[in-house]
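seq/struct pair 1
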Amino acid sequence: MIEPTGRVRVVIVNHNGGDLLLRSVRSVLESDWSGPLDLVVIDNDSTDGSPDPLDDIERVTLLRRSTNEGFPANNHGFADLLGDEFAHDLPPPDGVLLLNPDAALRPDALRLLAHAIDQEGGI
């Protein structure tokens, strides 16, 4: 069960996502989630400059990889859930959402997803 005040981490893996990455990040940051919200972007060696604007957004943890690790790069975003230490001092989350860089969330999406998980008795 994910409480409405629980810590949620959204992990976005990017590779040359262009302007869609920034749109996706903004949609997460505009969420109406009432608890702590961590946003981790893992960039897989983009050459289009798409992760560069994120350097100036304080609420985003940006992990730049020197190779394109593909979807398995998500493991860097939730290492603490796998028993490894997360490199950026974020507490372990109560729930994790994996989001593609070409997807955008509605403001109520995290709240509705947490409610749906609660109704189903967890995953």
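seq/struct pair 2
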Amino acid sequence: MNALSQCYDPELGINLVDMGFIYGVEIKGGKVKIRMTFTTPGCPMVKMMLGEVEKKVKEVEGVKEVEVEIVWEPRWTPERLSKEARKKLGFER
């Protein structure tokens, strides 16, 4: 999760963990499987963000393989935002 928190939504400048995009991480040996989503299937930044996720996770010691599964259920909603992200986006004070 530390590596994933170094990956950002380029439009909002908020990391993917705080955005609530990460649905799960499974580690088996040197293989890491990440389940994640995006705000919409038509997001033009998906490819760029996926590349950043793979790069950052592969930098973690012991990681040999990264698999990212994009899921659309459950749908992402603003309720998945962290408290910090809510503040940054003006949902909370």
